[in-house]
C-alpha cells in the first residue's frame, strides 16, 4: 500500500514583489526537509522555487507559487500559476541560457534540467501553469504520476479546515477530501482526524470507510467528506455534504455529483456509492466549496486540457473563494508527466 504524506496544507506565496522569491526558496527547502529529502535535494528544491518565482516576478501578472509534498509518493512539488501574458516562445524558454532580460537565463531551462518532472502549459493571453517535482531517484516514477492536490486555508487562518490525502492499494487509487465545519483549529482537528482514520484502512469498501470516518468524527464538530476510488475501467464516489465530484474529458465535463445531505460525525444517511461512467483517459476531480462551483458551468477549454496537477492548480488560482478553506484533488490514471 502506498499512502500520501501530503497532510499539511499547501504553502501559498503570492509573487507580487521580487522579495517573495526568497520566501519561496525558504518554503521549498523547508518542505523538502520535512519530506525527508536528503543531500542536495532540499537546496535543489529551493533553486526550482527561486527560478519559477523569479520568472513570475519578471514577466507575470497575478503570479503565485504553491509548494507542498507530493500528493502521492515521496518528494516535493512546486506549482506556479499566473494570469498572463503567457510564454510566446515556450520551447526556447526550456533551453538553458535563453533569456528575455539581462540575466544568465538559467530560469525555466534550469528548472527543466533539475526537476524529476517538469510540466508547463501556457496560452495567450490567459497565462501559464507549471508543475515541477523533485524526488529521490528511487521515487522518480511517483514524480510522474498524474495526481494533483492543492489545499489552502482561508485568508487570515494559519491552519486549514480542509484536508485531503490519497492511498494506492489493491482496490485501486482511493482519495479522501474533507471539509471540517467552519474554519480554524477545530475544523482542522476534525479534518485531520478524518485523514488519520482513512489512513488506517483505505482499502475498505467505500460505504464502510465512510461509516468508519463518521464514527471517528462523533466528538468533533463534523465535516463534509468525499471519497473517490479509481481502478481499471471503473470509478466510484461516496460523499456526504458539499464535496463535489466531477469527471472531465479534454472537451467537456462528463459527470457531476455532490454528496448526500448530512454531516459526517453528526448526522449522516446510509452511505450511497455512485458508479461513475469511466474511460481511462478521463480526469476525476474532487473539490470543496472553497472553489466556486460556477467554474464548471462554462469551463475554459484551456483548463479542460490541463494535466491533472496543473488542473488542480488552475482551479485554485482562478476560482478560489479566499474567505473559505479550499481544496482540489485531481487524478488521471492514463497520463504520465514528462
UniProtKB/TrEMBL annotation:
Residues 171-293 form the PPM-type phosphatase domain. It comes from the Bacteria. It holds the Pfam family HATPase_c_2. Residues 20-131 form the Histidine kinase/HSP90-like ATPase domain. Gene3D superfamilies: Histidine kinase-like ATPase, C-terminal domain, PPM-type phosphatase domain. PANTHER family: PHOSPHOSERINE PHOSPHATASE RSBX (PTHR35801). This is Anti-sigma regulatory factor. The lineage of its organism: Bacteria, Bacillati, Actinomycetota, Actinomycetes, Kitasatosporales.
Amino acid at each position: 500500500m502506498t499512502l500520501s504524506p501530503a497532510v499539511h496544507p499547501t504553502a501559498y506565496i503570492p509573487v507580487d514583489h521580487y522579495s517573495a522569491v526568497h520566501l519561496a526558496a525558504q518554503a521549498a527547502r523547508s518542505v523538502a526537509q520535512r519530506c525527508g529529502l536528503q543531500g542536495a535535494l532540499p537546496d535543489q528544491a529551493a533553486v526550482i522555487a527561486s527560478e519559477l518565482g523569479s520568472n513570475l516576478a519578471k514577466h507575470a501578472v497575478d503570479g503565485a507559487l504553491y509548494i507542498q509534498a507530493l500528493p502521492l509518493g515521496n518528494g516535493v512539488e512546486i506549482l506556479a500559476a499566473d494570469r498572463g501574458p503567457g510564454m510566446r516562445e515556450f520551447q526556447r524558454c526550456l533551453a538553458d541560457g535563453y533569456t528575455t532580460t539581462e540575466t544568465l537565463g538559467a530560469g525555466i531551462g534550469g528548472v527543466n534540467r533539475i526537476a524529476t518532472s517538469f510540466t508547463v502549459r501556457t496560452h495567450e493571453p490567459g497565462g501559464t501553469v507549471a508543475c515541477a517535482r523533485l524526488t529521490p531517484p528511487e521515487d522518480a516514477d511517483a514524480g510522474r504520476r498524474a495526481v494533483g492536490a492543492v489545499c489552502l486555508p482561508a485568508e487570515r487562518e494559519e491552519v486549514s479546515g480542509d484536508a485531503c490525502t490519497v492511498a494506492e492499494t489493491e482496490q485501486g487509487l482511493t482519495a479522501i477530501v474533507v471539509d471540517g465545519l467552519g474554519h480554524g483549529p477545530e475544523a482542522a482537528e476534525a479534518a485531520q482526524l478524518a485523514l488519520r482514520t482513512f489512513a488506517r484502512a483505505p482499502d475498505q469498501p467505500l460505504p464502510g470507510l465512510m461509516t468508519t470516518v463518521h464514527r471517528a468524527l462523533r466528538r468533533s464538530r463534523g465535516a463534509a467528506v468525499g471519497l473517490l476510488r479509481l481502478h481499471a475501467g471503473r470509478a466510484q464516489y461516496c460523499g456526504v455534504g458539499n464535496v463535489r465530484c466531477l469527471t472531465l474529458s479534454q472537451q467537456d465535463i462528463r459527470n457531476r455529483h455532490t454528496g448526500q445531505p448530512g454531516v459526517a460525525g453528526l448526522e449522516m444517511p446510509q452511505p450511497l456509492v455512485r458508479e461513475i461512467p469511466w474511460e481511462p483517459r478521463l480526469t476525476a476531480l474532487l473539490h470543496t466549496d472553497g472553489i466556486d462551483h460556477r467554474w464548471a458551468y462554462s469551463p475554459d477549454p484551456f483548463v479542460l486540457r490541463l494535466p491533472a496537477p496543473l488542473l488542480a492548480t488552475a482551479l485554485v488560482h482562478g476560482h478560489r473563494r479566499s474567505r473559505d478553506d479550499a481544496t482540489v484533488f485531481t487524478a488521471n490514471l492514463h497520463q504520465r508527466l514528462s
